Amino acid sequence: xxxxxxxxxxxxxxxxxxxxxxxxxxxxxxxxxxxxxxxxxxxxxxxxxxxxxxxxxxxxxxxxxxxxxxxxx
Length: 73
Prior knowledge:
Layout: H1 3-8, H2 11-33, H3 41-67
Helix pairs in contact: 2-3
């Protein structure tokens, strides 16, 4: 998944993708322990996708914070 693809997603969908990727990593780790997984690189790719998803979420959070005015009296 590329950053362009992720940025086009809605925030709710990004959260769903993040949850799904984390579950998949968990399953793959158990598979590695039991020697059921053949593609070890898939874990690395999923971890990178998780990092990309978190980066976009963090960007959106900081943009939302800068858009809200400060109500200092």
